Amino acid sequence: MNDTQLAQEAGLRRTFAIISHPDAGKTTITEKMLLFGNAIQLAGSVKSKRNDRHATSDWMKMEQERGISVTTSVMQFPYGGRIVNLLDTPGHEDFSEDTYRTLTAVDSALMVIDGAKGVEDRTIKLMEVCRLRTTPILTFINKMDRDVRDPIEVMDEVETVLNIQCAPMTWPIGMGRHFLGVYHLYNDVVHLYTQGQGSHIPEDKRIEGLDSPEVDEVLGEEQAEELRMEVELVRGASHQFDLDAYRRGELTPVYFGTAMGNFGVREMLDGFVEYAPAPQARETDVRDVPADDPRFTGFVFKIQANMDPNHRDRIAFLRVCSGKYDKNMKMRHVRIGKDVKIADALTFMASDRSQVEEAWPGDIIGLHNHGTIQIGDTFTVGEDMRFTGIPHFAPELFKRVRLKDPLKTKALQKGLQQLSEEGATQVFMPMDNNDLILGAVGTLQFDVVAHRLKEEYKVDCIYEAVNVQTARWVYCEDAKMLEEFKRKASTNLAIDGGGYLTYIAPTRVNLQMTQERWPDIRFQPTREH
Ligand code: G4P
């Protein structure tokens, strides 16, 4: 590898995730993008493949029964001369921590909005997370084949609720039964919609130029005139696309279409590969690491268990930040200070996986994990540094876990330790008793943990209510004061699964009072891995 090749390969990568509210069409648009990337033959197979995988993966049976998707998978496909890496995220909000962490591994995001519903809760929350790293956002307003809201109104809502400027790139021609296509405001091309093309790549029926008489022929004179006036109005009233403002996360280019009808997706993808940023420099505790730094670096943002139940394996998903991964290379696992030879990293094409020979910045590789890798771990070629900004959120729900068979304590501890390293749950061990308290962001996490403890560790457990309402990680530079705090507040202190001191508050009022009483102690709602 030489530096030019590295810069070139990195420059081709577009690594992103989709943010949306459930049902806005994330799965459908994923299928259509894979179709355009020739990663699947027939649109629709993401769902069926997913189901196959669920069927073979025992703990996921539960989520299948509930009809939700808990997994994060990675899909790589070529498009427009680029290599696109799409990191899928769980749809259900109970697994939002997974989604937040995945968002730390992308360079941009695609926001899918249901044109009838506008901006919904989950989107607001996910947008906040994107803001933490000023992730550039491209927008697709979906379901134009339905009777949706006035597109101007939807864009207004995006601007006011999400506090980001909208620059329409395409403009819809009609909607619902009268949805006829989109007009590309920058290429001056009318793209015509034909129904029933959802399962294959539709032919691009286009008319060059809004003023072309062909537009009048196809739309009818009246509607053609209406469209021209509307376009003039939209041009005057909305923001112009500005690449820098998009890259700074201040403006979002907006595309319209129907994921189900596989229309408008092509224009969005064309814009995406052109404007979305290639792999960006990333912060560590020592220095910023640009993608074209020849020294290999990466970090783990996700650990997934039992992707292949025949091997009971756990896969750590590593985002390559700089340099090149070569099969059989040696890397330093920084947290444990060990050099490891990686011979069997995996790559992901849709939901299939195969061994990878090489990987470049922006790519995701899967490392087999035998319990040593944790979320947030950095890998380098010897340099001692850590990537920062992979957050751990304070849980909002707590339960005490009790064993049905008290002789299984060891197995329970081991199971909880591993599940917390994976990020499936958080464990807190109070300082003044032997309870084990689990913390979660969503209640389904508890069900998954109980299920996995039973299946994987042969431990039957039950949950009990516990008097904890919120948790904060405790930091204090003054060792003496910290000791005093530990003594005086011990009934509300615990050690979490990572060994960090945590204040577990019975009420928010209690937390507030404690914070007031101890102004020099920091109570943090997030902790970095
Ligand atoms: P999600 O992953 O964001 O949760 O959404 P998903 O793609 O599963 O889409 C949610 C529902 O919306 C699906 O209907 C899907 O077919 C529909 N949908 C997605 N895009 C469009 C679109 O452009 N137009 C219209 N009219 N519908 C769309 P469903 O009935 O819940 O599932 P299914 O039986 O169709 O799979």
From TrEMBL:
It comes from Vreelandella arcis. One of its GO terms (biological process) is regulation of translational termination. Pfam families: EF-G_D2 (PF22042), GTP_EFTU (PF00009), RF3_C (PF16658). One of its GO terms (cellular component) is cytosol. GO terms for molecular function: GTP binding; GTPase activity; guanosine tetraphosphate binding; translation release factor activity, codon nonspecific; translation release factor activity, codon specific. Belongs to the TRAFAC class translation factor GTPase superfamily. Classic translation factor GTPase family. PrfC subfamily. The keyword 4Fe-4S does not apply. GTP binds at residues 20-27, 88-92, 142-145. It is found in: Cytoplasm. Residues 11-280 form the Tr-type G domain. It comes from the Bacteria. The lineage of its organism: Bacteria, Pseudomonadati, Pseudomonadota, Gammaproteobacteria, Oceanospirillales. Transmembrane segments: none annotated. InterPro entries: EF-G-like_DII, EFG_III/V, G_TR_CS, P-loop_NTPase, PrfC, RF3_C, RF3_dom_3_sf, RF3_GTP-bd. Its main location: cytoplasm. Keywords: Cytoplasm, GTP-binding, Nucleotide-binding, Protein biosynthesis. This is Peptide chain release factor 3. Increases the formation of ribosomal termination complexes and stimulates activities of RF-1 and RF-2. It binds guanine nucleotides and has strong preference for UGA stop codons. It may interact directly with the ribosome. The stimulation of RF-1 and RF-2 is significantly reduced by GTP and GDP, but not by GMP.
